[in-house]
Specification:
Strand order of the largest sheet: 3-2-1-4
CATH architecture: Roll
CATH superfamily: Pleckstrin-homology domain (PH domain)/Phosphotyrosine-binding domain (PTB)
Structural class: alpha+beta
Number of helices: 1
Largest sheet: 4 strands, mixed
Helix content: 10-25%
Shape: globular
Number of domains: 1
Order of helices and strands: EEEHE
CATH class: Mainly Beta
Strand content: 25-35%
Number of strands: 4
Length: 82
């Protein structure tokens, strides 16, 4: 796991499969070779969790800058073909 202060970026991804739709949060963590992935059952859950993590990161670091780039609805989501 990681401390909130170690998180460098937050990204949300969603599968394009209609039958088994899942969403994933990818956290880039300082000092880690790989990203930390959290799988969620829906995009709404993933976005809510990403927002919560982003808020805690800003609170812990005292920053007003979001680690999760949100430029409008679903512009921060990457669709993954499976």
């Amino acid at each position: 796991m990681a401390e909130f202060s170690q998180i460098q970026s937050i990204q949300t991804l969603v599968s394009d499969c209609k039958e088994h739709a899942k969403a994933c949060i990818k956290l880039r963590v300082a000092g880690a070779a790989e990203t930390l992935s959290i799988t969620c059952s829906s995009l709404d859950q993933a976005e809510s969790l990403a927002d919560l993590i982003d808020g805690y990161c800003r609170l812990v670091t005292g920053s007003n800058t979001s680690l999760w780039n949100r430029k409008g609805k679903n512009k921060n989501v990457i669709v993954v073909k499976i």
